[in-house]
């Protein structure tokens, strides 16, 4: 039986059992979820093992053991990932995978990519984990071919799958949780799922987060232990977020289903800025307000065993308001507002020619516009047309995938010169082979050539924007193995993967002084070569029916060097903020008394400057957390209290120079499932 | 983005005020020659990595972070300017918003003067000295007067927007009002003339847009570099005759300069063409007397400051390389031949003090 058929049977089975309206193919992670449920009987189907592109998945259960509050905390546990974390709850957090930079990572929310044409990168600190069912990270692209064209359009994909309703005997389910902890953290949230009728159900989810963020840290005025230091309090780090989300799920028939989702998000926070020696006043005047609303929908229809189609659409409006109340111009205040709009639509079809061979095609159109209250602002717009063709051949032992993406962009401005339109073809190929029938060992490889468009800031921002910019190219080659073993005495299951890769960035978009030192302009200047290794292992050990240990460990090596120009003094030097060695680990001890979860993230030395000199070195750090939790049932309500001790060794390490992380802290959480 | 990148002027009291040169000479009986350098570097924005490097010319040894070595703490954020006055060096810390006063012989901090107005950091930029006082221009549209005996602030004056370079002629202080933070409103184009006796502004002179560097010769002429608006209005180099307050365009392309013995040593650098040049200009005849000072073909990547050795007329220049990596110091003899180069003294080196 091949994978596709298995999938279908499985999904039909789940559908019948649960009465849920979820069906296959809404997005990659849907099927991932279902597949994981079946791993009890079918270990071979673990997508992390079978995928031809490296993928890591964190289910809701695993996320609970990571001592994570925000999405970014959990994502730090993926191998090959560098999170630029500016510290605290409100600080910017971006994700770079395998040294390519945050602009090459797509962030996908329920199957539709989140976009930010202004900066080209997504702040993943704004996503909480309350409503998350699973998160996954793919290098290259996902292993699926039946998806929107935009899903093929990045060097890696971070995918967030929110919770879907599952009804058994009750028509209303849900949970309420309350978190509270150090630095003034209060974070209540709720999720309710309601079954409206046989075909319709709805989910509502919301959370409110508030923290004053006033954490102490040790400021070191030198690099030696003998150099002076002082204990300071981080200022202007307060944050207030509110998020409300509603989703309507529809199972129109056995063949058709879809969802309609809307989300509102508002955030008001301080921007503390870098710690400045001897001056703690300049960092207390900047504030940022985020306001966003989006609605997105998916409709999937299966015409027959061979033909399926899906349509996706999204409207997004997001605004940023930045103020500096101590700005030293004549107005004494700086206030910038930026507004972005996106209208997006996608149609995709898939044809399964045989049980093993399928083809897909997708065509996406997005229209992005941006406004800002800036002097001489261009008011840019971009129409992007992306078309993809993909094919996949998959048997139990072999999988071959190839895709081509055609991207065409049409730029427009209301004032000034228009940036260049782009037309690019981006290929991808991958394979996975299981040489021996009886051993679950696979060899996998992929090649992908993709690019990222210059952001609107790159092209149009004040005086730094350069309209002649070309896209930044990324080439990726990956070669890896996966191995899975199960049912060995106590060892319930062990998964292992090792991937070597070589990536190259060409035409890297960087800022350089142009007309004068006062005038920095973005240019296509720079070549980066990245050679790396990602190792991942996880295991489940069951000592008895009640006592088991679940554990996972990652290690990454990245050699990401500037190869731009031999005469440059940074030639051959490691890129700033890219550790050579990094890793993470978690151990979850499950028992009938109190579950204990330990997690650690660890990073080797990095440099804050392109020149790898001692004075630019940021020391290695590790961040250990431990939590206790217990689940019990009273009157059909499931209570899950937990307490987390974070950064227990109290290290104010810096991920970004000048932005110390909070030291030791705690959180208490009570979740009630109804 | 918010940062206005800083192109900093080297101004030395020692050169502006002849009496101070004499003071220093009295201290030693040996024939004078430069034996060590103090090199100030801005660092990179928000990295608290401004440095004061120490270079020993005899032993050719460098302590890249001399201030840290001597004081067990870093200099701080964005060092913009420094000046020698008597036995002390005054360092202007723009980001850290304070003046660091160190002993010239030991490098040890004697005093820090915080530059704040209530909760607002003043953001000091440039410094000069005159008659027992030093004057500091700041982003908050002021010039602060510091008494060098008590090392305390003893006066403050409101100027035009974003004052930068200053110089003294007679008993008048001339302040370049750049309007650098007012770029959206078209900058400033004035020089404030301040009566030092009353420490009050008496006049405003109009010069090119965005004036930043000022130096005077000894016949009362002030030379001004205005950076322009990087658009329609190009950079200008002008002379102010302080007797008549007339402003004359000199049609020279100057990025920064220094006046020594009535000669202006000036360099220009074009970020577009990446071409640099160093010229010598006679302030008495008002003519360029050497179009190509560097005579051996040495090229700097991004010249960032210039300084003259008063003992042997050697010309020191700093090279910012690409404004992000550690830069170099070049020393040319008076014929323009490279004598030596000190590599990688600090990021964006912008000032040199020569010590005998």
Outline the structure in words.
Chain A has 674 residues and is mostly beta strands. Chain A is built from six helices and 38 strands. The two termini of chain A are 39 Å apart. Residues 1-44 of chain A have low confidence and may be disordered. Chain B is mainly β and 356 residues long. Chain B has one domain (2-355): Methylamine Dehydrogenase, Chain H. Chain B is built from three helices and 30 strands. Chains A and B meet through strand 25 of A and strand 9 of B.
Overall average pLDDT of chain A: 89
Fourth-level CATH superfamily of chain A: TonB-dependent receptor, beta-barrel domain
Based on CA atoms alone, the radius of gyration of chain A comes out at 25 Å
Query: Cα distance, first to last residue of chain B?
Result: 41 Å
Overall domain count of chain B = 1
**What is the number of independent domains of chain A?**
1
Strand-residue proportion of chain B: over 45%
Oligomer kind: heterodimer
Strand content of chain A: over 45%
SSE topology:
The complex is a heterodimer of chains A (674) and B (356).
Chain A: H1 3-18, H2 28-37, H3 47-50, E1 55-59, H4 60-64, H5 71-75, E2 81-85, E3 93-97, E4 105-109, E5 112-114, E6 132-139, E7 156-162, E8 172-181, E9 185-195, E10 200-211, E11 216-220, E12 229-233, E13 239-250, E14 256-270, E15 286-302, E16 307-324, E17 334-352, E18 357-372, E19 381-394, E20 398-412, E21 423-433, E22 441-452, H6 456-460, E23 472-488, E24 491-506, E25 509-516, E26 519-524, E27 528-542, E28 548-562, E29 581-590, E30 595-603, E31 606-607, E32 617-618, E33 621-629, E34 632-634, E35 637-646, E36 654-656, E37 659-660, E38 665-673
Parallel strand pairs in A: 4-7
Antiparallel strand pairs in A: 1-6, 2-3, 4-5, 6-7, 8-9, 8-38, 9-10, 10-13, 11-12, 13-14, 14-15, 15-16, 16-17, 17-18, 18-19, 19-20, 20-21, 21-22, 22-23, 23-24, 24-27, 25-26, 27-28, 28-29, 29-30, 30-33, 31-32, 33-35, 34-35, 35-38, 36-37
Chain B: H1 13-16, H2 18-26, E1 36-41, E2 51-56, E3 61-63, H3 66-71, E4 79-85, E5 88-93, E6 98-103, E7 109-114, E8 116-117, E9 120-121, E10 124-130, E11 133-138, E12 142-147, E13 152-158, E14 163-169, E15 172-177, E16 190-195, E17 200-206, E18 211-216, E19 221-226, E20 236-241, E21 246-249, E22 256-260, E23 263-270, E24 275-282, E25 287-290, E26 303-308, E27 315-319, E28 326-332, E29 338-347, E30 349-355
């Amino acid at each position: 039986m091949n994978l596709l058929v298995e999938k279908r049977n499985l999904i039909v089975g789940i559908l019948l059992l649960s009465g849920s309206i979820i069906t296959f193919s809404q997005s990659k992670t849907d099927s991932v979820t279902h597949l994981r449920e079946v791993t009890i009987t079918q270990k071979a189907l673990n997508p992390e093992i079978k995928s031809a592109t490296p993928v890591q998945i964190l289910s809701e259960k695993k996320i609970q053991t990571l001592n994570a509050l925000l999405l970014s905390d959990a994502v730090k546990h993926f191998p090959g990932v560098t999170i630029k974390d500016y510290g605290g709850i409100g600080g910017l957090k971006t994700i770079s995978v395998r040294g390519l930079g945050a602009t090459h990572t797509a962030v996908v929310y329920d199957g539709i990519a989140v976009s930010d044409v202004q900066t080209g990168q997504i702040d993943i600190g704004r996503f909480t984990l309350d409503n998350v069912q699973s998160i996954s990270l793919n290098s290259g692209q996902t292993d699926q071919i039946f998806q929107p064209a935009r899903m093929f359009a990045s060097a890696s994909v971070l995918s967030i799958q929110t919770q879907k309703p599952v009804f058994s005997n009750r028509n209303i389910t849900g949970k309420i949780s309350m978190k509270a902890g150090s630095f003034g953290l209060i974070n209540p949230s709720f999720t309710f799922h309601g079954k409206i009728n046989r075909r319709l159900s709805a989910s509502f989810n919301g959370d409110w987060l508030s923290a004053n963020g006033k954490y102490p840290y040790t400021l070191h005025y030198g690099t030696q232990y003998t150099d002076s230091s002082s204990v300071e309090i981080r200022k202007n780090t307060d944050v207030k977020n509110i998020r409300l989300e509603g989703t309507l799920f529809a199972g129109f028939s056995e063949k058709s289903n879809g969802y309609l989702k809307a989300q509102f998000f508002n955030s008001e926070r301080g921007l503390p800025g870098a710690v400045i020696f001897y001056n703690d006043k300049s960092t207390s005047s900047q504030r940022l307000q985020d306001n966003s609303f989006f609605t997105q929908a998916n409709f999937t229809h299966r015409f027959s065993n061979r033909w399926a189609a899906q349509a996706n659409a999204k409207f997004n409006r997001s605004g940023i308001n930045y103020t500096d109340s101590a700005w030293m111009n004549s107005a004494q205040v700086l206030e910038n507002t930026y507004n972005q709009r996106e209208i997006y639509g996608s149609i995709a079809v898939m044809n399964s020619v045989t049980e093993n061979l399928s083809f897909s095609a997708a065509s996406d159109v997005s229209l992005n516009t941006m406004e800002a209250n800036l002097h001489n602002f261009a008011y840019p717009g971009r129409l992007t047309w992306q078309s993809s063709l993909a094919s996949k051949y998959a048997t139990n032992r072999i999988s071959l995938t190839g895709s081509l993406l055609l991207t065409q962009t049409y730029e427009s401005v209301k004032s000034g010169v228009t940036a260049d339109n782009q037309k690019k073809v981006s290929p991808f190929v991958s394979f996975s082979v299981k040489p021996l029938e009886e051993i679950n060992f696979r060899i996998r490889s992929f090649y992908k050539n993709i690019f990222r468009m210059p952001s609107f800031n790159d092209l149009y921002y004040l005086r730094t924007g350069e309209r002649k910019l070309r896209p930044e190219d990324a080439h990726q080659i990956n070669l890896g193995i996966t191995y899975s073993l199960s049912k060995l005495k106590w060892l319930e299951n062990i998964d292992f993967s090792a991937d070597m890769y070589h990536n190259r960035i060409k035409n890297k978009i960087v800022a350089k002084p142009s007309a004068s030192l006062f005038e920095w302009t973005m240019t296509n200047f720079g070549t980066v070569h990245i050679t790396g290794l990602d190792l991942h292992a996880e295991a489940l050990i069951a000592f008895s029916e009640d006592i088991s240990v679940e554990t996972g460990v990652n290690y990454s090596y990245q050699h990401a060097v500037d190869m731009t120009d031999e005469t440059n003094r940074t030639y051959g030097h490691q890129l700033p903020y890219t550790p050579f060695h990094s890793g993470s680990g978690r151990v979850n001890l499950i028992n009938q008394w109190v579950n204990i979860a330990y997690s650690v993230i660890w990073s080797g030395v990095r440099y804050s400057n392109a020149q790898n000199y001692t004075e630019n070195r940021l020391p290695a750090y590790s961040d250990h957390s431990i939590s206790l939790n217990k689940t019990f049932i009273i009157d059909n309500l499931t209570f899950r209290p937990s307490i987390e001790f974070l950064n227990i060794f109290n290290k104010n390490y810096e991920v970004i120079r000048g932005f110390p992380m909070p030291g030791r802290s705690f959180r208490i959480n009570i979740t009630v499932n109804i | 983005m918010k940062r206005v990148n800083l192109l900093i002027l080297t101004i030395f009291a020692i050169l502006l005020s002849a009496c101070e040169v004499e003071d220093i000479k009295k201290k030693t009986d040996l024939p004078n020659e430069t034996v060590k350098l103090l090199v100030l570097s801005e660092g990179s924005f928000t990295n608290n990595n401004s440095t004061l490097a120490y270079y020993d010319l005899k032993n050719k040894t460098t302590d890249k972070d001399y201030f840290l070595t001597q004081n067990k703490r870093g200099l701080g954020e964005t060092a913009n300017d420094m000046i020698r006055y008597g036995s002390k060096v005054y360092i202007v810390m723009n980001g850290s918003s304070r003046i660091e006063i160190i002993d010239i012989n030991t490098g040890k901090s004697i005093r820090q003067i915080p530059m704040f107005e209530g909760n607002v950091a003043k953001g000091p930029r440039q410094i000069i000295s005159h008659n027992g006082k030093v004057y500091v221009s700041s982003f908050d549209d002021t010039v602060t007067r510091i008494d060098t005996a008590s090392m305390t602030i003893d006066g403050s004056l409101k100027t035009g927007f974003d004052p930068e370079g200053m110089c003294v002629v007679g008993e008048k202080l001339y302040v370049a009002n750049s309007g650098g933070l007012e770029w959206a409103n078209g900058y400033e184009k004035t020089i404030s003339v301040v009566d030092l006796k009353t420490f009050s502004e008496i006049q405003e002179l109009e010069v090119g847009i965005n004036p930043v560097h000022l130096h005077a010769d000894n016949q009362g002429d002030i030379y001004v570099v205005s950076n322009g608006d990087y658009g329609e209005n190009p950079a200008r180099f002008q002379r102010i005759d302080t007797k008549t307050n007339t402003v004359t365009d000199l049609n020279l392309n100057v990025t920064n300069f220094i006046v020594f013995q009535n000669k202006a040593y000036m360099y220009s650098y074009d970020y577009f063409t990446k071409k640099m040049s160093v010229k010598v200009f006679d302030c008495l005849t008002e003519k360029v007397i050497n179009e190509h000072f560097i005579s051996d073909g040495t090229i700097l990547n991004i010249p960032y400051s210039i300084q003259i050795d008063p003992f042997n007329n050697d010309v020191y220049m700093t090279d910012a390389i690409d404004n992000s990596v550690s830069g170099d110091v070049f020393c040319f003899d008076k014929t323009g031949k490279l004598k030596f180069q000190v590599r990688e003294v600090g990021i964006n080196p912008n000032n040199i003090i020569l010590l005998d």
